[in-house]
């Protein structure tokens, strides 16, 4: 019975070893697989810190830059439009396959906001965002997200682009027409560039500063010191003193009274408040990291030296971020939807577009000024403006209107029919008043 049990255990162990070897075979890193090596062990830097996506996200600046940008883009309403023969456009309803997927339900688990927030976050962090196109027949039914660390574009022996996906210990090559790929900034090629990878020097230094600050404050701002004695100490005495001194280390032990005996004296090393807080280095690292993500420091709540957190200057910075940061990302997504999702269907009259006006939703003053300008200049009907405020339609609100207080120079002084009628009415009323007075 024991021999049979041992043989069974050896068989199970051998099967497990074969399974593990098969998994390792699929997941084995090659010398050319730089992306996988960087993801596993981090990118080297002079600070000597491992810079990976996980360690970078532990920095509040990196987290805030990615989060705020991803949220700003994903909150914009996305719709699919179709151009008409008269150069007009109509909104495609959500019963169409592409519009339904990208605007209503990308997949079984995510809302459109969550899906695009995920895509933008991956693109900002790694330079690339991937989704598998799930099709029912020739109809697009879902976009299933793929983590950027689990997907790598490669060229096969025929030079064709495929996407090598690692999923639960297995590797699968997907053809390019099965993957929706958003690329970040780059110099061409098959992939975008990762800010975290190329900014390893900046992020490594920031991690080192955070670590040094944490250790210093964890010690209760107590700098290292020196203990001097009037006599020579043996090894056992040194170890005893060291053990006693360790009970006074840490922020929880700050303020304790220390008693020294036998002529021992403690000399504390000087540490200035500026060195303790590392204000200048910390401030500089925040501004440096913001540059890598194209986000002004004021957006994440960091005001540069001499700058306030409010005022017209901050408003202009915000507009610059929307113009140079958010809008290019929206354009990049729209172009990819057109190329990889809409164009393969053969309908080139359709296109996807984010509604940038939604950024005015929380600014009631700017939104009121925008709607007033659009309706008073004949660019939008009253009912179209009311629809943007979620108000019901009113009778007579479907006509384009414009103010008529301006006129060509050659028409100055010319009376219109309305002016003539008003002048005649005033003259008649004046005659009636004179008759009553004379009577």
Structure description:
The chain has helices at about 1-25, 35-40, 55, 60-75, 95-105, 110-125, 195-200, 200-220, 235-245, 275, 280-295, 310-340, 365-375, 380-390, 415-439, and strands at about 80-85, 90, 130-135, 140-145, 150-155, 160-165, 170-175, 180-185, 225-230, 265-270, 350-355. Strands 2-1-11 form a 3-stranded antiparallel β-sheet. Strands 4-3-8 form a 3-stranded antiparallel β-sheet. A 3-stranded antiparallel β-sheet has the order 5-6-7. Helices cover about 45% and strands about 15% of the residues. A hairpin with a 2-residue loop joins strand 3 and strand 4 (about 140-145). The chain is of the alpha+beta class. It has 15 helices and 11 strands. Mean pLDDT is about 80; it is low at about 25-35.
Layout of helices and strands, plus pairs?
Layout: H1 2-27, H2 34-41, H3 53-57, H4 60-74, E1 78-83, E2 89-91, H5 97-103, H6 112-126, E3 128-136, E4 139-146, E5 151-155, E6 161-167, E7 170-175, E8 179-183, H7 195-198, H8 200-218, E9 225-228, H9 235-246, E10 265-268, H10 273-277, H11 279-293, H12 312-342, E11 350-354, H13 364-376, H14 382-388, H15 417-438
């Amino acid at each position: 019975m024991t021999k049979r049990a041992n043989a069974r255990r050896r068989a199970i162990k051998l099967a497990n070893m074969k399974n593990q070897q098969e998994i390792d075979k699929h997941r084995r890193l090659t010398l050319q697989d730089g992306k996988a090596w960087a993801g596993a062990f981090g990118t080297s830097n002079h600070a000597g810190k491992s810079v990976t996506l996980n360690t970078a996200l532990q920095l509040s600046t990196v987290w805030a830059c990615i989060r705020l940008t991803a949220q700003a883009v994903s909150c914009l309403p996305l719709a699919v439009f179709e151009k008409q023969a008269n150069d007009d456009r109509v909104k495609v309803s959500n019963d169409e396959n592409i519009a339904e997927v990208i605007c209503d339900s990308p997949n079984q688990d995510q809302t459109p906001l969550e899906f695009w927030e995920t895509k933008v976050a991956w693109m900002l962090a790694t330079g690339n965002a991937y989704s598998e196109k799930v099709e029912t027949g020739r109809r697009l039914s879902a976009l299933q997200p793929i983590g950027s660390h689990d997907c790598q574009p490669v060229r096969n022996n025929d030079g064709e682009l495929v996407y090598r996906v690692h999923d639960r210990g297995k590797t699968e090559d997907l053809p390019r027409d099965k993957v929706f790929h958003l690329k970040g900034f780059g110099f061409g090629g098959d992939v975008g560039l990762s800010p975290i990878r190329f900014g390893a020097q900046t992020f490594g230094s920031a991690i080192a500063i955070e670590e040094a600050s944490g250790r210093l404050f964890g010690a209760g701002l107590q700098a290292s010191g020196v203990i001097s004695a009037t006599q020579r100490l043996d090894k056992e005495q040194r170890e005893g003193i060291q053990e006693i001194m360790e009970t006074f280390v840490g922020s929880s032990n700050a303020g304790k009274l220390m008693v020294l005996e036998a002529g021992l004296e403690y000399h504390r090393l000087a540490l200035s408040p500026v060195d303790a807080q590392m204000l200048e280095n910390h401030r500089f690292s925040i501004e440096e990291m913001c540059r890598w993500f194209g986000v002004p420091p004021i957006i994440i709540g960091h005001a540069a030296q001499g700058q306030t957190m409010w005022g017209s200057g901050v408003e202009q910075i915000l507009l610059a971020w929307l113009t140079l940061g958010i809008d290019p990302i929206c354009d990049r997504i729209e172009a990819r939807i057109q190329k990889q999702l809409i164009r393969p269907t053969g309908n080139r009259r359709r296109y996807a577009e984010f509604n940038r006006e939604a950024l005015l939703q929380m600014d009631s003053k700017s939104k009121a000024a925008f709607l007033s300008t659009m309706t008073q200049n004949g660019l939008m009907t009253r009912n179209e403006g009311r629809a943007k405020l979620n108000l019901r339609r009113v009778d007579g609100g479907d006509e384009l209107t414009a103010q008529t207080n301006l006129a060509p120079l050659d028409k100055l002084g010319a009376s219109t029919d309305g002016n003539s009628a008003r002048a005649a009415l005033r003259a008649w009323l004046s005659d009636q008043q004179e008759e009553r007075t004379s009577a």
